[in-house]
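Dock S-adenosylmethionine; give full complex structure.
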Amino acid sequence: MMETSHVIRFSDSRSMDFFADNSVDLVVTSPPYPMIEIWDTVFADLDPDAGKNLELQNGWAAFELMHKTLDDVWQEVCRVLKPGGFACINIGDAVRKIGDVFCLYPNHSRIIRAFVKQGMFPLPAVLWRKQTNAPNKFMGSGMLPAGAYVTLEHEYILIFRKGEKRLFKNPQERENRQESSYFWEERNQWFSDVWFDLKGLRQQLTDKNLRKRSGAFPFVLAYRLINMYSVFGDTVLDPFAGTGTTLLAAMTAGRSSVGVELEKEFYPAFEKKAANIVPFARQIVETRIHDHVDFAARRSQEGKPLKYTNEHYGFGVMTRQEIRMRLFCPVNVEETEKGSFVVSHRQAQACSRPDSPESLNDNPPGPPVQKSLF
Ligand SMILES: C[S@@+](CC[C@H](N)C(=O)[O-])C[C@H]1O[C@@H](n2cnc3c(N)ncnc32)[C@H](O)[C@@H]1O
């Protein structure tokens, strides 16, 4: 049995003095995007000069002031991260016409610069391909040359590390790392630098309207990153928590989490989803196991059986690193006080393939969820 804690705080993440220096293992987040209109008022509230410059049509000055606001959060992120800890930042660039000038505001490169200034090491980033069928995705002069613009159908997941590689110092830490490993075939997909449409996997954990207003990212995005860059029992921080997707993913993955968010209006939906995390997480985790069992069966049929055996489940695995791997599922969640949750986890069992994870869906049933979630 393992216990994790999850806290959401309603405050401004430009100051996170409730965290000691070097106390967080991983940051997974997505800030409001500078120069994207839905976030204009948020930035203007945080720095009225940013709003004034927008009104005066000083696009680049507004862009810089919005990023200066984010810089204060990044500074806190770098302070609270432990040496060897990762920060994963989901961000998209913006295209916008200000006055007569249409241009791209490259948020991702400005954020890389901010992290490098803080002494963080940038690592290869993920390009998240977000294809759209919207008829207005092609911008500019249409079929007439020299006046049209390519579409903007991707975002970034920027990845930074604080200092050198994380050390796993004693046998217990090394054992926990081994148990927290992921499957070989998951590695091949997760550690590719282009993630194709996570759209089909848009989280079932957030209703559509709320998601649109909040700019929520898909559950699977946070869940993957947490599995890739932390181990069981670690603490994950999201300084722009929104609807709490990162916290829900941490609950599912057996990590503790803290979210910081300005808007209290997202709380009731988060609270409801957190209360229902047990059946949802179970389906997520069991689907991973089933996908692996299917993979092993296909390899066997092809005459290429897996070489090693996992000690906890008895199924074949591709590499020695997966022998000690196990997966945990939440079995109980308790809201100990408003905004604070304690989750108990137990090792997941291999059993029959679960139904699709729709039980937490607020919306009426839609098209069937894809068979494989990951
Ligand atoms: C892109 S959304 C994050 C959505 C989140 N990933 C989710 O899945 O719901 C950015 C969030 O940051 C919040 N925010 C903006 N500035 C903030 C600040 N200084 N401190 C805390 N939260 C902030 C906004 O209210 C918004 O909810």
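Observed: The mean pLDDT is 92.
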